[in-house]
Write a structure and sequence with these properties.
This protein has one domain: TIM Barrel (Alpha-Beta Barrel). It has 13 helices and eight strands. It has helices at 6-12, 36-45, 57-65, 77-80, 92-107, 128-140, 154-163, 179-182, 192-208, 220-229, 251-254, 276-289, 295-298, and strands at residues 49-53, 70-73, 114-118, 145-147, 168-173, 212-216, 235-238, 246-249. It has an eight-stranded parallel β-barrel with strand order 1-2-3-4-5-6-7-8, surrounded by eight helices. Helix 3 (57-65) packs across helix 5 (92-107) and helix 6 (128-140) crosses helix 7. It is globular.
Length: 300
Amino acid sequence: MTPLNPSSAASAAPSATPYGTLPPTFTPSVRKPLSLLRLREMHTQGEKITMLTAYDATFAAVADAAGVECILVGDSLGMVCQGLTSTVGVTLETMRHHTECVANGLRRSHGVSWLISDLPFGSYHESKELALRNAVVLMQAGAHMVKLEGGGWTTDTVHFLVERGIPVCAHLGLTPQTVHALGGYRVQGKTEVAAAALRREALDLQDAGAALLVLEMVPADLAGAITQELARCPTIGIGAGKDTSGQVLVLHDMLGMNLGKMPKFVRNFMEDAHSVRGAMEAYVHAVKDGSFPVNATHAW
């Protein structure tokens, strides 16, 4: 048998891996890696920020190549990956594992996207010190930022983490980890009192140092007003109308893979796309040009 030429073997290596689901290379990116400074610039300039969830290396790499600025390793993985009925059962170790997978995927692609990881239920509620220890776990797994839910008591925790160099994304409105206390997946901030509370909590979280704020299932007018009031903290909407600083969707939802009832605020971007990457690119384009979401269709 003729021995294999070492240079030929090396050049053939990428295609020799039967489970190499990540492309060996993507077209080199002209984008610079996302940073807090860049996100602030986008906010100041009025450029919409795009965010999608991802839970593994392959989808993270494709989202990165498609131009998605922020990738969220959401505890929604409990529902879409683990088959749970809510996010409450997701553990810190599960979040650490999936964060590491996504971070590895970004290292194998452009590595441009900003990586956010959810602190799961119970991982930050007991004390600020517990929140710090668990945030460190996710940051060491590859996250650039951690996300936690709720206002009020979380403000001190946000300040504590930010003071220690951990960027924080806050989350108000429908907070899935407390869905049982909220009485189900319902629009939040509908009454005058509830709206005033959300506005106050948003300002407090900004003052505590939150660098991003997710607004979920909040009336469009209220979300727009909160966005205008926050000079330093971009808002990311999901079911909160078109006037937030950016948008986020769960990956499986925007690909039309929801096994239950599709939420009102979702658009299936796979319908007119020829590939997953094409669907992601369409999503990025629609958020950037303002054609998604449409308040009359996707908001309250």
